[in-house]
Structure formats: structure tokens, C-alpha cells
Request: fold
Amino acid sequence: MPFQELFARHSFALAPAPPWVTEHAVPWDTPSLPDEHMVWLLADLQFNAADGDGGTVVCERYVRRLATADAVRNCSQIEIEYDPVVERLAVHHIRAWRDGQRRDCAEPARFFFRQREGGLNEQILHGRVSALLVLDDIRVGDCVDVCYSLTKTKLLPGEKIACSFPVERAQRTAAWLVTARLPLTVTPRYQAHGADVQPQESAAGGVKIWSWSGAQERALPEEPGAPPWESLPAWAQFSCYADWGEVARVIHDNWRGLFTVSDSVRALADTISGADEPPETRVLKIIRWVQEHIRYLGLEMGRGSWVPSAPDAVLARRFGDCKDKSLLLAVLLRAIGVAAGPLLVHTQWRGAVARMLPTPAAFDHAIVTFSVGGRRGFVDPADTFAGGGIFSQSLPDYGQGLSVGDNVSGLLAIPPADEAADSVSISEKFTLDSTGGVSQMFMRVTVSGGEANTLRAELARAGRRGFADHDAEALRQFFPDIRPSRLPMVTDDRDANRLTVCIAHEMTEWGAVITSDMFGSARGFNYGSRWLWRFVSRPPSTPRRAGFLPRHPLRLTHAVLVQGKLAGSGFLKERRFPADSQWFDSGTLMQWSSRWTGGKSLRMTYYYHARQAMVPAAEAADFIKAVDRLGEKLGCHVTVRCRRNFKQPPRLPARAPDADLPPADGDAEFLKNFDDDFQPDPKWLHWARMVVCWLFVLAVVALMVWLRTLR
Reply:
């Protein structure tokens, strides 16, 4: 059967609105504001859960006026997405309004059906389908009126009524309405998040009706960096679940038959871990095996979005989503006598789930919790590149989770891992040739914690060559012809979750000519902590309704050493630029050192230590000022004296884009003295130089006096 016909026959229909749907008046006289692309005249959402079995019908109607050509281009295609496995789409009407005249546009033959799988890049197959209708003859000033309903079947036996809906929208809305039809036999709990909006209660025809309405007079400004658990825009929910324990029992009842430890699973657990190993070693081996040998791929279609596949099936196909991998890991650990079970979390709301009403929809990810030697551990089996021990694997600060079991009474607190805060240490050494030859740049990046997981994944995705090319591209804003000279050297201590990457670059062109005289030329360039801005950001504007999330936890150190015939450095100078604030410790240390003639080297050390995980909205302006002060001290102008003939440096010989780089042989020997190069000269050497210098000056003066006396 053709794809289009399949969905048109089994999950899609054009039909009148159900009799319980109320058609509300549209405020057509709402004026458009200057520079406003689109006006939401009506946003109407109606729930019907009156049958009480957990299934719902959701009817949505929205009317929008298209005020600009840009709005016409973006909104003349009506797209409705749904899951054909568990949802049936009924389109009630799609209309275009112009000067009070209505034109019906919904015709069955004009609908297209597309299965786009937008989550495929994240290795998720959701099976959702888009019903697409392209509207004809839509002009600026027209209104588009869309009404449809989705009939959702119950996914889980025992599932209860639980719904959420927005009470604010990003755009200005002339009128919004929400209506919920509920059985008289239930009394759901209600809670609003971000706004004090209470329902109006009534009853009709043996049905309890809750309704909400309002208007939004202005659009909500975007607030980049806002915590995802903040209630922006405001929303509300109602739920018939008594507590989180009831949610856990409903999920466990649907997972119950999947926890059986089969003979094949038990044999695999013994093979992976080794029967004679200590318990912690056995657990770590099994965790690593599931992380590395079961690839992540989610089949989030229908019931599969809530219920995992059996462990034996996951082992046979060697892929699974977070639920599949978590259940498999828990069963493997149980096979060696370790108490373990899946733990549901939310990647965005995190600990804020404790402030919500109980519902299975409060979770979008699964990890595993286990107990070894009286200690509880947490691990994410879907994190292929995680490092660390069983109690020190880096996890986001999930805060709260729900164990899947029938004896669960509430949420489980998830403490931070034993591992220290994420740290990044970068050392860059530039050896500049001032005669027109090839200059060298050597960089070492050492990361730990969650940053090690991120870098490990980046190396696996891009490869060593790709990683070096990406860094060279970032450096070309300072050095136009810089390029990798050999393959990076990678050292990975997976147990300590510490990763080091060493990159070597070469270049001939650096800086611009500043001066040129009979003694030669001077070239200069600006350089600073280019890495810091990969981690430190600031909110774009204030005031804000929500707080701002800086990168936390984080310890960053960026050391830069420039060696060459530097100008104007003196014998030894040191300058410190602290930029501390209540949110971070930061600053810059600059040190110039030389020998007997001219400048020789410049050391710049930048450090940043995040203090707080969130900046409150009321303090965002002060945080912006602190980051701006930090930015003022993150650069330095480097001046190098060159030979006269070094005005136009030669270019490096061309290299094919796919040409192989030489291996990193010899870098290990170079690294032995790498740290020593970044150590400033001791104070006694400075004073010794000063004494010798003054003795030399006195000797010259004495010689001149003696020569004068001879005359």
C-alpha cells in the first residue's frame, strides 16, 4: 500500500469537530502593532479525558493574522505532527480569511504526509508523521484559521490522567483559552508554574469542567542562557496521580517481566567481569562494556517510548536507547549479585521535578543506580565516552530521579559525583622566527571530568586530524597561514577521566609590520585567552525574568609563552590583573623576561574558576559588568623585532587537503621540557642580572672617566 494512502486510511481523517468542542469567538478587531510579523488572535486548547481510562482527545484551534511578507512565507504551510501508532489525527477545518470572507482550504487530496525523523542526528527514531497542507493565495493581512484534534490511546496499562498546557506564549496573543473535561469521580491536583492562574470549575452532563482564559498583551523576549527548569513561558498542569510512588508502580508494572536474569545474561556478566575480580572492578567492567559495546539508538515509537526492550533482545541486536541500556546494565549487575535498577531523570528540568505534580511525563532519560560496599553509585550507560570510576563518573546535576520499582515512596536525591570539578588546562608555546623562517606553535590541552567526556567524544567524531584542523582554523584570525605540522598526540587515562591532547602547528606569517627603519622592522599581533570565551558567556541584555546559567563547575587555566626577539620587555616585569567577582575568580598574570639584550619571552597566564551555578535574574546586570571587566584584561599586544628583509614573509608550501600528516614522533621528548619552559626565571637570577648589569655600567663609566683623565 502506498505511504500516503496508508496514513490517510488508518490515522488521518477530515471530520467535523466533536460535539463537546466549544467554538469560541475570535477577536477579529485586534490591531497589529508596528514591526509585528504575526498576531495570534486566538489560541484555544480543549482536553477531553471524561472517559477516565487515561486516554485523551486534544482539540486545538488557532487563528493567526499574517502582517508581513515574511509571516506569509513562513506560515502558509500548515504542518501537524503526530504519532500514527498511538494517535489519530482529525482535521476539522483549515480556513483563510480576507476582509471578513472565509475560504475553506482543507481537501483530502491536497495533504502530504512526511516522516522526517528530525531526531535521527541524535540517534532517535520517533516514527512521527507530519500532515502538510500548502495554502494557495495567501497575502499580507490574511488570517489563517486551523482546527484539529488528536485522539491519543493509552500507552501504559494503569496510566492515569495527567496533562500540561501553556498559559504564556512567545508571541502576543489576543485571547487564549484552555478547557479540560474530566470525570466527576476524579479530583486531579492542579499546579501553575510561573504564573498565578487558577481554573474556573463547573459541571455539565455528568462531566467536571475546568477552564482557564486570558490575554497576552506583549511578546515574551528571548532570554538565552536561562535555566531550562525555569517556568518561561509560564505553564500549568493537572494530575490524578497521588504521589511519585504511584507513578513508579505504574511504570514498574509495565516493566515487570523484563527484569528476569536469563542464563545468557548471567553467562555474559561472568565473562565480562571475571569471577575472581573485586566487586568494584567487576562493576566497572560491566559498566564500560554496556557503554562501549551497545550503541545508542532509540526506537521511540508508540509503547516503545515508555517501555524498554528485553535485555536478550538488546544483546542480540547490539543497540538500544537509554531505557534499553539502563535495563540491560541493571540486569547484568544483578547477575553478579549487585543491587541495581533504572532511575528516571529529566535532562532539562533536573531537580525541579520535585516541584511538579507526579506524572510519567516528568522524565525523558534513564540512568542506573546501584549499591556496592554500602555505597550508592550513579552511572549513565548511554554515555559512550564516560570515564572515571564507578563512584566518580561525571553526570549532569540531575538533582532528583525516580527509581522504577513497586516499593518506591518518592523521588531519590542524586548527589554530585566524587570527582573534582571539571577542569581545563591549556598551555601554548610560540617560538617565533624573526628571520623569515618557519615559526612553531605547540599546544597541550588537558581536561578532566565532564570536559574529558566531551573532548573524548569530539576526538572520536572528528579524528585527530580533524581536531587539529579545527584548532588551526580558530587560530587563523591571529596567524593567517598556520596549519598542523604533525598528527596530535593523545594520552587518555580513562580510569582517572583525564585526557591530554598535544598539537603542533607551523607558520611563517604572523602579525603586521608596525615600524621599519635602518635597523630592521617590528611586527606585532594581538593575542590572549582565546579559549576562555569558549566557556564563559554573558546574557545579552537585562532585565531578565529568569536567571542565567554560567558554565559550572569549571576550572580553566590558559598559559601562553611567546619566545622570540620581543621588543620592550626589559629585564623582568610582572603585572597582575585580578578580575574577581562573587560569581567567579579570574585574572591575568603577565611576565616578561630577558637576558642581556632586548626582550626574549613573554608569559601570559589566564585563570578562571566558577563560583556559582546560577546568576539570579536581579544580578544579571552586575554579572555582565564583571564579565566585561574580565574581557578588558584578556589580551596583550606582542611586538617582535625582525630583520629588514622580513617584510613579506614567504608562504608555506602547499599541501593537499587530504595529505597525511607525519606522526607525532619526538613530541614525547619535547614534552619533557615543556613545563620547564613555562616556569619564570627565579628571583635570584633576576637580581644577579641586575647586579651584573650595574657592574657593567659602572665599569663603562669608570673606563670613560679614566680615558678622560688620560687626555
Observations:
- Confidence is low (pLDDT under 50) at residues 1-5, 595-599.
- The radius of gyration is 33 Å.
- The first strand starts at residue 12 and ends at 14.
- The first helix runs from residue 3 to 10.
